Amino acid sequence: MSAEEFPSVWKALPVEAARTCGVLGVLPEGVVVDRFDVAAACGLLPGEAGRHLGLLSATPLLEGTGSAGLYRVPDVACRFVRERAVGEGHGGQAQVLRRWLDRLLWVAIGLDRVVGPVHPLHRVPGDSAHRPREKDLPATGARSAMAWLAPRKNTLVTAVRAAHEAGFVTVVWQLTLALRPVWQRLRPHEQAVATHTLALAAVRRHRPPRVRAELLVMAALAGTLRDAGHHTRARNLYREIHQRAQELDDQRMAATALDGEGHTLQARTPLSGGRLALPSPAAAPSRNQPPRPTTSPPPPREPWRCRSATRGRPDCGSPYAATR
């Protein structure tokens, strides 16, 4: 369908569905949404938001992504939908964006704790301005959590950038830290470095200062730099973290920095069979073994003789027989 036909499609939409489509125009281009995301952004119940998405998906203004329950605005319709972006009745466009971001932040924090054990000191606080109405997480196990996160990887990265552009500094660094399963398992290295760089800038602008949160973001950034192959930058950042952690008497973070620097140095060293390429034992003898003698070896011992052949002759076969 050509862009000239979009206005007629828009006029044929029910009022509430058209308003929901206008809310989608507030969100960044290219993101994927489900009924819970739309419900959080519009302030609707998930069932009502699902009905609106069903009506919109029957038009050229919305399309499925291939994943069950996920939709996106097609590229050809993005401009038309954004021109009709609405915020009135929903608290303004900034509030619509913030509710959508809070929904993603809340889910990301929950899935981070589902996928892997997180130390209490490293948990993301999650200072959400809006709590989503639906309290159930979309996954209860690591596999289902990654199945939820994988098709939304680019959307989550885009959400961090949108929060940065909107000035939601708390959402920027908290959402970045909460996406730990995405960075560690899906490994989008360059996206991770760019996103953590934004997070570090955001947490440093936080007022009042969040010193320990800044150390967490710095440690996460150093890890992404190491995984992306930027070993020198990662090592320097780990050393800075160690120095600041010692000033704060944070022994756990200081140990984390030392451990990260060690892994960075190990990643820079060529590996052979999964171990560090060390000198051969012949070239560098171990400290626990005495040095090999440089003199000639001792003379061979006299050959052993059968006991039955020397029975009754105690001197036979004795190395001292010739001296007696």
Draw up the topology in text.
Layout: H1 6-12, H2 15-24, H3 35-42, H4 46-57, E1 63-64, E2 71-72, H5 75-83, H6 93-115, H7 142-149, H8 153-166, H9 169-178, H10 180-186, H11 189-204, H12 211-227, H13 231-247, H14 251-268, E3 271-272, E4 275-276
Antiparallel strand pairs: 1-2, 3-4
Helix pairs in contact: 2-4, 3-4, 3-6, 6-8, 6-9, 8-9, 8-11, 9-11, 11-12, 12-13, 12-14, 13-14
Task: Provide tags for this entry.
54% helix; two-stranded antiparallel sheet; 324 residues; mainly alpha; two-stranded antiparallel ribbon; single chain
Description:
With 324 residues, the chain is mostly helical. 54% of the residues lie in helices and 2% in strands. The protein has 14 helices and four strands. It has helices spanning 6-12, 15-24, 35-42, 46-57, 75-83, 93-115, 142-149, 153-166, 169-178, 180-186, 189-204, 211-227, 231-247, 251-268; strands spanning 63-64, 71-72, 271-272, 275-276. Strands 1-2 form a two-stranded antiparallel ribbon. It is elongated. The N and C termini lie far apart (117 Å).
N-to-C SSE series? HHHHEEHHHHHHHHHHEE
Mean pLDDT: 83
The major β-sheet equals: 2 strands, antiparallel
The low-confidence parts are 271-284, 304-311, 313-324
Structural class: mainly alpha
What is the helix fraction of residues, given as a range?
40-55%
> How would you describe the shape?
elongated
How far apart lie the N and C ends?
A: 117 Å
Report the radius of gyration as a whole number of Å.
Answer: 33 Å
Count of strand segments: 4
Sequence of strands across the biggest β-sheet: 1-2
